[in-house]
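User: Diaminopimelate decarboxylase. Structure?
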Amino acid sequence: MKNSDLVTIANEYGSPVYVYDAEKIESQYKRLTNAFKDVKHLKINYAVKALSNISILKLFKKLGSGIDTVSIQEVQLGLAAGFSPEQIIYTPNGVSLDEIESAATLGVKINIDNLSILEQFGTKHPNTPVCIRINPHVMAGGNANISVGHIDSKFGISIHQIPHLLRIVENTKMNINGIHMHTGSDILDIDVFLYASEILFDTAKHFKNLEFIDFGSGFKVPYKTGDIETNIEELGKKLSAKFNTFCKSYGKDLTLAFEPGKFLVSESGHFLTKVNAVKQTTSTVFAQVDSGFNHLIRPMFYGSHHEIDNISNPKGRERFYSVVGYICETDTFGNNRRINEINEGDILRFKNAGAYCFSMASNYNSRFRPAEILWYNNKAHLIRKQETFDDIINNQVEVDLDNK
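Assistant: Predicted structure:
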């Protein structure tokens, strides 16, 4: 997308606003599938939690993707977007047995990561195929909040509990159709994947009716010029060879599955904000924008980096700014950034705003959540309206405090 396209969108739809480039989503999807072209059966299940707009889900359906869901609501959203139940895998954590049973009733693939829940579900529904999420005890991820495969993680069934797991499967006679893991996000070292894959292959040998092995995701994308990223092509070559070797020894061509979110949508996203004020203090020049961590919490939540540029004045001389929001707590998007000269009213663009940005937005300070735009076939399509005051109070119930 051109800067002029983004400025036009900001002027037409107002700011702040999220914009997603469909062409980038498609290219990332094709890059991933091409990296694993040597695997006979490959399934990409887009992680809905990264960006859950129904138009984005429909785009992935058009590309041939399935979806990975973590709540019954995401399952329902996937069905509403046109995915068939068999194209949906449900991978919750810490939910009730009732919710898992509700998802199973809808016919989607079930992934369980708790021995107690597994035993209860298997006892009541032994004929419903179940995938098992394994914790490989591999520490991986760019931040403690997104590292989910280590020994202290709440996710998955420990590899040291395999004997107990097998006893449950034997006693309930349940059908295990898949093995799954997810070690973390922003993983750079592909040897982490390859090491964890050996653990998963060893676990898979215990089950005779598998249909797929799901390696999760966690591929790192670049956040700034010259940044390093997961070498998907090298990973594809090496993991495909290991997977194909395992399938031969297993005696069956299984499906290799992934559930990427950030890798597919992060770079497609642009978050546009308007500069309300430029404030000079004794040591800092602040660019104060019409947004805050209510719309983009990632920098405050786990220190994520988003490149920020001035698309209203892309050729202006560079100066140093701290870009901050309007929330009454600290909400600094970027400290001491070199940005083309900023004036009040300019539009700033935050890059890598496609994953875990709008989906984690809130109405904190009773602010409206922004509109969302899909740039598709060189045209802007409104895929979510900006909220209004009616949306803020819609589900609130006023009590008559004067009625004694």
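Residues 11 and 347 are 9 Å apart (CA to CA). The first strand starts at residue 17 and ends at 21.
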